[in-house]
Write a structure and sequence with these properties.
This protein has one domain. It is 19% helix and 22% strand. The chain is built from three helices and seven strands; from the N terminus they run E-E-E-H-H-E-E-E-H-E.
Length: 138
């Protein structure tokens, strides 16, 4: 996978991130590169950040992005913030992908017409929030 022309690699360990009130005060709504979490990453880790609803990508000037999983608690804060609500400063943990979430892995098992339970349901998209990663990877 590539993001903005650079390779993406999975994180190998979790990252504890402290989002402070000053990060929230200078944050922009619906902007994955300047929201409160992106500001906190820039301040604490000295890294460029792209924050999406399920993934976080950090780059510290190297030739690759490091990919983390966004925890559900932080996802809820981002949705509330993008829709005009408040963002509660707190300590959050960006998760290293589990084996099944790593790049290149896929769910095993039978798929297709032999297994009627494998038919994929139409995804539900959360509206009026930031763009997703698929809009910026090209």
């Amino acid at each position: 996978m590539k993001l903005k022309g650079n390779k993406v690699v999975d994180a190998t360990k979790d990252l504890v991130l402290i989002v402070m009130q000053k990060d929230v005060d200078f944050a922009s709504r619906k902007k994955n590169h300047s929201c409160a979490v992106a500001k906190a990453c820039a301040r604490q880790e000295k890294m460029e950040a792209l924050i999406h609803l399920t993934r976080v990508y950090l780059r510290n000037g190297e030739e690759h992005w490091t990919r983390y999983i966004l925890p559900p608690s932080l996802r809820g804060e981002l949705i509330a913030f993008d829709r005009g609500g408040t963002f509660i400063p707190d300590t959050y943990v960006l998760l290293a992908p589990k084996k099944s979430e790593k790049l290149g892995s896929h769910a095993g098992g039978k798929r297709g017409k032999d297994n009627p339970n494998s038919l994929r349901k139409k995804p539900t998209y959360v509206k009026d929030i930031r763009a997703n990663v698929y809009n910026v990877t090209k």
